[in-house]
Amino acid sequence: MQQTGTKTIWQVIMASSAGTLIEWYDFYIFGSLSAIISEKFFPPSNPELAYIATLATFAVGFIVRPFGAIVFGRLGDLVGRKYTFLLTLLIMGGSTFAIGLIPSYHTIGVLAPMLVLILRLLQGLALGGEYGGAATYVAEHSPNNRRGYYTSFIQTTATLGLFVSLAVILITRSVMSPADFNNYGWRIPFLLSVLLVIMSYYIRIRLQESPLFIQMKKEGKTSANPIKESFGNKENLKLVLIALFGAAMGQGVVWYTGQFYALSFLQKTMNIEFVQSNVIIALALLLGTPLFIYFGSLSDRIGRKKIMLAGMLIAALAYYPIYKAMDTIGDVKQKTELTELYKIESNQSKNDEGQLVQQTTKVHTYSDGSILRISDGKPELTVDNTRMIMLVLLIFVQVVFVTMVYAPIAAFLVEMFPTRIRYTSMSLPYHIGNGVFGGLLPTISTILVTKTGNHLAGLIYPIAVAVICFLIGLVYIKDNKNMEI
């Protein structure tokens, strides 16, 4: 087992993963709470438009990730991997904490969404520099024949970050009333971020620099201009484009369809109750996470290309029937209502201004055990345990596709580029693929559904991108598994 000083590869992995997990947690808290955020920070006159605006603000964080990749990738290739991802950790944590402090739209008006947008930009820039540093750092400590296996632990952090964000939200929600959570409790997951960041910073500050980078620096072989070498050199630019359009682009849409779009579909299209929808996603993620390690290890034996492209193709073929089945489970028009159990509930709750308001809820019960509650025109469907398990399994299958495309990609990207410009070269295609093609998916798909009225219209985008990426990757990708880096 390769070592750096007294720290084994496992210590390197744990320290790198802890920080990366926290950064993903910070980044995804916003998306996990998008339904509530749309009510708090945007004008209440048009809830549908407010939700789309929230998703667009969420997407902005992804769009700027490539710029973060260039800025911090250059810094990582010039100064070192360690200090660069220490800086990104602090920027991400500080931005997340600050979002939890912003007053609502009712209090400060248009300044609220403006502040959220600025902080979301900072989050995106920070994440753009984080992933490439962590993946490069672990890969440069790993033995050649186990690089896919060891870097796959970094790959778990994105999904685990989403899982942790959902878990924190659910725990916070469970210890207070729905009204209190809606009024102020949703801020707690944002504010907790500062404690996690302090802990992770303490772990990371004690790490040593990458041995390959130290050796290269001693020999005076570091790049004087990583950006020019990465994108001004014709041969390297060709590799960047292949990495983007033959791998990262498809991986990005598969990742976001199987997790974030799945959550959005449950909450906004199927109207599944908030807690139940988050539990469904969390269980599917928990079941699927070990497969990152499996497919990462398998890529060391059979190659990265086969697994990634297979994941894209199978996902593209399976999405329509999967989401059709999900939509059917939530369609109350296909359910038989037990009219004798219909009732109207009335209770009081506080609004954002602290005023008591009367709330009337209509409760519909169906023969399959589903219960639909409609309060102030907002429907919330709670399904029975059997259908909940069915939804968990349908999303778990999508998570399997995620693990196939995502587990090998860190090792794949590291092996494409030379050490002197690796941080910069691999970060840009990864963050364009994930940040632009993947990050825009919830917004584009939601708009397609809204405009067409077809619940499945949002799948057009991820299916098309995955198929195009599969074809390009099939022709142009060369597998460099286990090569010397």
UniProtKB/TrEMBL annotation:
<keyword id="KW-0762">Sugar transport</keyword>
<feature type="transmembrane region" description="Helical">
    <location>
        <begin position="274"/>
        <end position="295"/>
    </location>
</feature>
<feature type="transmembrane region" description="Helical">
    <location>
        <begin position="49"/>
        <end position="72"/>
    </location>
</feature>
<feature type="transmembrane region" description="Helical">
    <location>
        <begin position="428"/>
        <end position="450"/>
    </location>
</feature>
<dbReference type="InterPro" id="IPR005828">
    <property type="entry name" value="MFS_sugar_transport-like"/>
</dbReference>
<feature type="transmembrane region" description="Helical">
    <location>
        <begin position="12"/>
        <end position="37"/>
    </location>
</feature>
<feature type="transmembrane region" description="Helical">
    <location>
        <begin position="184"/>
        <end position="203"/>
    </location>
</feature>
<feature type="transmembrane region" description="Helical">
    <location>
        <begin position="84"/>
        <end position="102"/>
    </location>
</feature>
<keyword id="KW-1003">Cell membrane</keyword>
<dbReference type="Pfam" id="PF00083">
    <property type="entry name" value="Sugar_tr"/>
</dbReference>
<dbReference type="InterPro" id="IPR005829">
    <property type="entry name" value="Sugar_transporter_CS"/>
</dbReference>
<feature type="transmembrane region" description="Helical">
    <location>
        <begin position="388"/>
        <end position="416"/>
    </location>
</feature>
<feature type="transmembrane region" description="Helical">
    <location>
        <begin position="239"/>
        <end position="262"/>
    </location>
</feature>
<keyword id="KW-1133">Transmembrane helix</keyword>
<dbReference type="InterPro" id="IPR020846">
    <property type="entry name" value="MFS_dom"/>
</dbReference>
<keyword id="KW-0472">Membrane</keyword>
<protein>
    <submittedName>
        <fullName>Sugar transporter</fullName>
    </submittedName>
</protein>
<keyword id="KW-0813">Transport</keyword>
<keyword id="KW-0812">Transmembrane</keyword>
<feature type="transmembrane region" description="Helical">
    <location>
        <begin position="149"/>
        <end position="172"/>
    </location>
</feature>
<feature type="transmembrane region" description="Helical">
    <location>
        <begin position="307"/>
        <end position="323"/>
    </location>
</feature>
<dbReference type="GO" id="GO:0005886">
    <property type="term" value="C:plasma membrane"/>
</dbReference>
<feature type="transmembrane region" description="Helical">
    <location>
        <begin position="456"/>
        <end position="477"/>
    </location>
</feature>
<feature type="transmembrane region" description="Helical">
    <location>
        <begin position="108"/>
        <end position="128"/>
    </location>
</feature>
<dbReference type="GO" id="GO:0022857">
    <property type="term" value="F:transmembrane transporter activity"/>
</dbReference>
<feature type="domain" description="Major facilitator superfamily (MFS) profile">
    <location>
        <begin position="12"/>
        <end position="481"/>
    </location>
</feature>
<dbReference type="InterPro" id="IPR036259">
    <property type="entry name" value="MFS_trans_sf"/>
</dbReference>
